[in-house]
Amino acid sequence: MNAAKVLIVEDEALVAMNIQNQLEEIGYEVPEPTSSGKRALELITVIRPDLVLMDIVLRGDNDGIETAEVIRKEHNIPVVYLTSHSDTATITRALKTQPYAYITKPFTETSLRTTIEIALVTHRYENRLKESEEQIKLLLNSTAEGIYGFDVDGKCTFCNQSCLTLLGYDDKKQLLGQNVEMLVRPPLPTEDAHPKHNSRINSILLNQTTIHSEDEIMWKADGKNFQAECRSSPIFKNQQVVGGVLTFLDVTEKKKTAAQLTELQANLEKTIEERTQELSESEHRFRSLVETTSDWVWEISHEGVFVYSSPKVMDIIGYKPEEVIQKSQFDFMEMEEAKRFQTLFSSFIQSNKPFAGLEFRCQHKNGHEVALETSGVPIIDSECQLYGYRGITRDITERKEVEKMSRIRQKQLVQADKMTSLGILVSGVAHEINNPNHNIMSNICLIQRIWDGITPILQTYSNKNGDFIVGGLSFSYLKKQMPDIISRIQSGSVRIASIVSELRGFAYEERNYSPEPVDINAVINSVTALLSNMIKKSTIKLQLNMGKDIPILHGSYQRLEQVFVNLLQNACQALPDIQKGIFISSQYDQRNNLIIVNIKDEGCGISQKNLNRVFDPFFTTKRDLGGTGLGLSISTTIINEHGGSLSLQSELGIGTDAQVAIPLCNGKNKK
Q1: Measured between alpha carbons, how far is 658 from 314 in angstroms, rounded to an integer?
Q2: Which stretch of DSSP H or E encloses residue 350?
Q3: pLDDT 10s digits, 284-305
Q4: What pTM was estimated for this model as a whole?
Q5: 3-state SS of the chain: helix, strand, coil percent to 5?
Q6: Residues whose CB is less than 8 angstroms from the CB of residue 534 and which lie 6 or more positions away in sequence, other chains included
Q7: pLDDT in tens, 323-374
Q8: Exposed, middle or buried: residue 455 (CB in 10 Å: 0-12, 13-18, 19+)?
Q9: How far is CA 489 from the centre of its chain?
């Protein structure tokens, strides 16, 4: 099948180019767009497009609506309006040209493609129906037989031209709606009415059989009568008689038209059968398409309740189609989500606009939440009144989850990069701090010697001249305090050197380490020193219970240090106030040949639901505080590398106990 040809009539060049690119990517053939209604009419006679996308507002003498009217009347090509105008006056004027769709800019590629395909299919079926109707009219009006139909009350519902000619009437209006029994067979002068049992119409409706008569008397409009051959048949719908049809012919023409009547009847029945078959096949194709698509196809009334739902609804929200009929889509949402979506959805209904890509969250029948995306187009009747909406809804839960995880992983990568940069920075800063601190440590010794040497001289001067002031302080006071001042400077410098050493060791990237002797108590003391400031801010109750005679194990000092830093940080962050404590203990389990370290806190605790996931990579309950969800996962990996285990026991409101157990392997560890 050749690609459909679509002509774009749009006065904004960029918009026209964008639409052309979208349609060509979909697979349509798109000639050069035009912005003039006059030029569009010229092109139509040359290229004969299958569909015209028409902007309502065009420059020049003819706007889009006037141009569309000419296209409809003279060329029979479907027109789909493109416009940013949605006022009632514009819609009313546009609808008089009988467009096949109405798209309000901006729109998505999906809504554009769907609208065009529906318009093309609708136009094809309309052409087929028109051809069928024209064929039937031609057949009915070309026959010499008079044909009229009637309903169950005997009133005329249709008649052909031969019927009017044979009966002497000028216009169908003279017969339509009239009791045809009284017209073609009026009562005799001595009768008030036909006896009901003699009525041909009554016989047809009552007996539900065809009646044939070759000597029926029929009356013309001028009062004259003629003998006719008549055949009357009932019309059935859903096995019920809804009326009948009567064909008649002047007997004088019977021989000439007998063959035509037989042929006409056969052709008429065949045409009706073919049209019924076409409609049945069309309905079957449409239903197959709707029921096999992966999207949920629906229709709602102007009141917002479902009047149709495809079976796909079961796969998406778990309900059968009959369970959602006469319910609103808001009935399947949480209250807050329903309020949000109703506000958004109402704006489209009030303006009769199509919508696309609206996202919302819905409750599945089994209780879990699903993310959905919906699009729809308005159904507007001939009086410009909103009849309802038709549209599709698809499940985007998996897509939204992927997007969420992608954002989380991006943040985690950024955080990991920050940590790498921080390690490099810490190493450099530690070096810069170490140099001046080394000078302090060297010079404080010199200051101590100077003070020790000058003190006797100052004492002699004080004994001879009395107490005196040095740097704002009396010599007697300075003599007592100076040794303590020098000692505190010296101990502070030593502490700075210790912290710098710990930072440099912790920040150093260890690659392909070889096992080394590790004193587990030394690791714990190093970690508490490294986090001393954080501990002071978190609690006033830190208890250390270091076991004695714990064997030396072989492993990575730095990696074990990383584990205990992570566990101690978690303990500090879990404390609600500084009155709650942290308890660290180490011991040697000789029976099982294990070194065991416990870090217990009196913090907020962990729920059972989260306790089952805390070791999963990227899971964290502290993302707002900068948590990456990698600490416990990495710590578990490190302990596993040492052949040990890391376990957590926790209770909400009570606290958490983290236990690290590391075995002494193959006699390599010693006391």
Answers
A1: 46
A2: helix 335-351
A3: 665 666 566 778 888 888 778 8
A4: 0.34
A5: 50, 25, 25
A6: 569, 572
A7: 888 888 888 888 888 888 888 777 777 777 888 888 888 888 888 888 888 8
A8: middle
A9: 65
